[in-house]
Protein: DNA-binding GntR family transcriptional regulator
Amino acid sequence: MSASPAPDEDVRADLTQQIREAILGGKYAPNQRLIEADISDEYGVSRAAVRTALLHLSGEGLVERLPNKGARVRSISVAEAVEIVEVRIGLESLCARKAAELITDAEADELRQLRAEIIESVETGQLLQYSRLNHQLDERLREISAHATAVQLLERLRAQSARHQFRLALHPGRAAVSAPEHAAIIDAVVAHDPDGAEAATRHHLEGIIAVLHQLE
Structure:
């Protein structure tokens, strides 16, 4: 029987998640200094726990450690964001293919409902909701794919590029283009069409690269 995590480990894991969400949500801006004492006071934890959390986030590429100056939120350039999406093409196409092979009837019904919500959010101009639904779709496809290695790598890449993804969702006219692309991915997956799911995913991500170049 495996031992339960120590309380200190639970605190550090929870703190890492809270700071991660604060960075991805824009509470901490790119290049902003992360002061251990301030974070310690804000979250009611020790500075050692903060230091450990920042080290974990540094490993994820969200935080940059500065020699003798502590840490700051790492800024991801558009060029680097493009490289990340290029890597994601292979991994997400694989997950879409696997999802199409493994999806159950219940999961297919869930994705059809999500498809309807995605289309509705764009038609009613709810772009923040649309961004959240896109993230939900990405998560479900990864879960359905059951490809642990690809999912682990994608989670790290998603964290690094999340701020650019948010900007893309609000880019003028982008939602009207990407919503049908997401619908096409869902249609192929629920139809148990691995080739179609892979092709639709690749097409969608190549479109993201084209829009990222417009942000340069």
DSSP finds nine helices and three strands in the chain. Strands lie at 33-34, 63-66, 70-73.
